[in-house]
Design brief:
Elements lengths: L1 E3 H5 L8 H10 L3 E9 L9 E11 L2 E10 L6 E5 L9 E6 L3 E2 L7 E2 L3 E3 L2 E3 L1 E3 L27 H5 L3 E8 L10 H16 L24 E4 L7 E8 L8 H9 L7 H13 L3 E5 L7 E6 L5 E3 L5 E3 L5 E5 L4 E4 L3 E2 L12 E7 L2 H11 L4 H8 L6 H16 L2 E2 L4 E3 L9 E4 H8 L5 H10 L3 E5 L3 E5 L10 H12 L22 H14 L3 E2 L5 E2 L13 E2 L10 E2 L4 H12 L6 E10 L9 E10 L16 H14 L6 E4 L5 E9 L2 E9 L1 H6 L6 E7 H7 L16 E10 L4 H9 L6 E10 L8 E10 L8 H19 L2 E2 L2
Parallel strand pairs: 13-16, 28-32
Antiparallel strand pairs: 1-12, 2-12, 3-4, 3-6, 4-5, 6-11, 7-8, 9-10, 14-22, 14-23, 14-24, 15-22, 16-19, 17-18, 19-20, 20-21, 25-27, 26-27, 29-31, 30-31, 32-33, 33-37, 34-35, 35-36, 36-37, 38-40, 38-41, 39-40
Length: 810
């Protein structure tokens, strides 16, 4: 929210300094994020003076230059070399003497210095309008009124506007402060509380009654949807002369970042930022049927908005229509192309209405139209403000655009809104705030804010908030207002703080996440953070209805929430490869998003690994060796081991974008998928080297963790025993099948299974291979005997022979 200091002071009974006002605003919860100086002319013409050209002579060394003598009303005339073709003796001009700084309309500022131009000394510059920021013309120097006296400052003559502009960080509940009058109201309440008085009140602008037009122009109003439009005010004005706004209004709008357009549009913007009430002006001659109808049109109805785009309406969009059901404006959001005020407009219909916040929010987001009016409507307005804002705008139109009211105010308000009645006790106020407020101070603050006190006693108050504070519905809201106006800095800090220790839920999710991140970082991985908003073209293989689409996308390439982590990671890999960073180990904690047929939008947490390039940098000790599937599989296994999960099972599967692909399961639930990114996917990202990818389903993993948050155990006292087997198997039998068969033997003594050699030879037989597998056994209670170990190995051999038809090599 942007506030002008000069504008705000119009409504204050006193005028604090800009710095003092900044402190007051921050103290009452309207935090000032920045305070900047505004100048309608950069530099405000400081140091420039009006001079009189006494003489003009040709330059002896340049055909296009002139030697001038200029009287600036202070001491000896200045010798100035000038190249303007229109310079002549007797002219009154703007002079920038030595030491003055000029701020051109384009280019960098320049400070005048004594100079020698083609051998002749020059003590300043005679200025054109573009050279000092007063215009764009550079055809020659500015020639001023001959009656002006030399020595007059340019600042006195042109009177450029200066102001201070506050950027206020408003919280969403402070819609009442989204205007200059609203901020002034809070400042007055602060001053009343500080001075313990009721003397400070907002100086509301006067409503000068304009004469009525000779010819009446009555336009009726019909509200068909009173839920979406609880109140609608309108009035016709004739004889309007459309043109530029006066300089004072343009400067105020420019100070807060609003571009002046014409006097009618500028007045509606001015009243919006003055009062907080959006207005809309229609060209009355474009309203057919002699009336305005507020209604909803069927879904798919075309409407051409003010920006020239045709939009398809939704049945939930509230429309302002004419008597023939033609759309004139999307209510509270955006005007229509043909119904707005133009340079030729003579008669206008001025609207001041109260629209449902929910409806405006949905329509604004649906069409991607975030206007000042929509932002205010969706936060909730003061329903009682509409007539006042309308009268204020009509008075300004009469003053600035010579328009005259051609009808009375039409006010359709079938169900007047009543402010809620809230009872609050002094004990509750003091307990919740942590501060002892005197009853008189509480009442003073509430009075200053516009609250109505219905009943009071020594213990409590029954009050109603003003309609411009629709967010106040419970006693805690009243306490917040009291604390805010008294100043949050006044809340004392107690010597002792009472607190109840909370029990951390186990496992500690953040600690687990940090543990794995530390492990990966220690092993050479770099953590990346990629955008969760991505390109829908990556997911043409998915059902479009399953994608979470952005209603107001940042660009055509960023239009959906990612349903997969793979693509955003490949973008980062491609980015690094294009910059010759070829050896990459990345990990990322992130979320994916989907849309279910039920209309729900589940989010899933993931940990993703991305590997490409070489395992180690090339050097004389190690030969280059590319990362591969087994390198990735080792990290996956180590991560699960770090989390103290039971031994995982890995089986082949099908995953879009991965070839080969495997899934890893623990306790019967899939916790990860891994594999190589297929060539088609790599080509889409212009990646020319293999990439290996693992995706952990982090939510599932957290559910599998043990409740106690310990990832260590005592080292066993008794030694482990290792036995090796050479298994002759069919070539299609994977090591995962060997692990599965081994785990089918029910024993707690098996600690580890490891494949340490694979041998293939025709001597083994056609279609055969040999796995050399080690088995590690350990009993934590005693030393294992050979008989016990042999018995276990016998069970394993039987399982391999039965389930895998394995032969045991002797």
């Amino acid at each position: 929210m942007t506030i002008s200091y000069n504008w705000l002071c119009d409504y204050l009974p006193v005028k604090p300094s800009p710095e003092e006002l900044s402190v007051i605003l921050t103290a009452i919860g309207l935090e000032v994020e920045s305070l900047e100086k505004f100048e309608s002319v950069k530099g405000s013409l400081e140091g420039l003076v009006i001079g009189e050209v006494l003489s003009v002579e040709p330059h002896p060394n340049a055909d296009k230059l002139r030697l001038t003598r200029v009287n600036i009303g202070n001491g000896e005339p200045l010798s100035i070399v000038c190249g303007a073709p229109n310079v002549a003796a007797g002219q009154k001009v703007v002079v920038a003497p030595v030491g003055a700084t000029i701020y051109p309309a384009s280019g960098e500022p320049m400070t005048m210095k004594k100079a020698k131009i083609r051998g002749e000394e020059s003590y300043g510059m005679i200025c054109a309008e573009d050279e000092i920021g007063l215009g764009a013309s550079h055809e020659g120097i500015m020639v001023l009124d001959p009656a002006l006296k030399p020595g007059l400052t340019a600042r006195e003559l042109f009177q450029p506007a200066q102001d201070w502009v506050y950027e206020i960080g408003l919280t969403p509940n402070h819609m009442d402060a989204m205007s200059h009058i609203g901020v002034a109201r809070d400042v007055c309440a602060y001053l009343n509380n500080r001075e313990k008085t009721q003397a400070y009140h907002v100086r509301r602008p006067g409503l000068n009654t304009a004469c009525a037009a000779e010819q009446p122009l009555q336009i009726g109003v019909e509200v068909k949807n009173t839920e979406a439009c609880p109140r609608y005010c309108g009035q016709t004005i004739t004889g309007v002369k459309t043109g530029p706004s006066p300089a004072w209004m343009q400067h105020r709008l420019q100070a807060i970042g609003v571009r002046p357009i014409n006097n009618i549009v500028d007045i509606t913007n001015y009243v919006l930022h003055e009062t907080g009430q959006p207005l809309h002006a229609f060209d009355a001659d474009q309203i057919k049927g002699g009336k305005v109808v507020i209604q909803n049109l069927p879904t798919g109805t075309p409407f051409v908005s003010l920006d020239g785009k045709e939009r398809k309406l939704d049945e939930g969009d509230l429309m302002i229509c004419d008597g023939e059901n033609n759309g004139l404006c999307i209510a509270g959001v955006f005007g229509g192309l043909n119904s707005g005020v133009k340079d030729t407009t003579v008669n206008i219909f001025l609207e001041s209405a109260y629209f449902s916040a929910t409806g405006i929010r949905k329509t604004s987001m649906r069409h991607g139209l975030r206007t000042d009016a929509a932002v205010r409507f969706e936060k909730g307005l003061d329903v009682s403000l509409a007539p006042f804002a309308l009268e204020r705008a009509v008075a300004l139109i009469a003053e600035i655009a010579q328009g005259l009211p051609a009808s009375g105010i039409t006010d359709v308000y079938p169900k007047p809104v009543e402010s809620p009645s809230i009872t609050v006790t002094y004990a509750y106020i003091n307990r919740l705030s942590g501060h002892q407020y005197a009853p008189e101070q509480v009442k003073n603050i509430l009075h200053s804010l516009g609250f109505t006190i219905h009943a009071e006693s020594d213990e409590e108050l029954r009050v109603s908030p003003p309609l411009y504070k629709p967010d106040i519905t419970i006693p805690a809201d009243i306490v917040e207002e009291i604390m805010r106006i008294d100043g949050l800095d006044n809340i004392p800090i107690p010597e002792f703080v009472n607190m109840v220790p909370s029990r951390q839920a186990q496992p500690d999710k953040e600690r687990v996440k940090e543990k794995i991140a530390d492990y990966l970082a220690a092993n050479g991985f770099s953590e990346i953070f990629t955008n969760s908003i991505t390109n829908s073209q990556y997911y043409t293989h998915l059902d479009p209805d399953s994608l979470v689409k952005m209603l107001n996308s940042l660009s055509a390439e960023l239009d959906v929430m990612r349903p997969s982590m793979l693509e955003s990671g490949l973008e980062r890999i491609a980015y690094n490869l294009n910059r010759r960073n070829d050896d990459l180990l990345f990990f990322e904690f992130g979320k994916t998003y989907t849309r279910e047929a039920t209309g729900q939008y589940p989010e899933a947490a993931h940990l993703s690994l991305y590997l490409t390039g070489q395992k180690l940098p090339e050097n004389w000790v190690h030969k280059p060796q590319a990362v591969d599937f087994y390198y990735l599989k080792g990290y996956v296994a180590n991560i699960l081991q770090q989390l103290a999960l039971p031994a995982p099972q890995m089986t082949a599967t099908t995953v879009h974008g991965l070839q080969p692909a495997f899934e890893v399961s623990v306790n019967g639930r899939t916790v990860a998928v891994l594999g190589g990114v297929d060539g088609k996917q790599l080509k889409a990202f212009d990646i020319k080297q293999p990439v290996w990818y693992a995706d952990f389903y982090w939510d599932v993993i957290l559910q599998q963790l043990q409740v106690k948050d310990t990832f260590f155990e005592e080292i066993p006292k008794f030694p482990a025993v290792r036995r090796d087997l050479a298994l002759v198997l069919d070539k299609q039998v994977s090591f995962a099948a060997v692990e599965t068969a081994a785990r089918s033997v029910k024993t707690n003594l098996l600690q580890h299974i490891n494949l340490f050699d694979v041998f293939e030879s025709e001597k083994l037989g056609a279609g055969k291979k040999s796995y050399a597998v080690s088995f590690t056994f350990q009993n934590r209670e005693k030393t294992l005997t050979d008989q016990e170990t042999d018995a276990l190995m016998g069970k394993f051999i039987k399982a391999f022979e039965t389930q895998l038809q394995a032969e045991i090599r002797k």
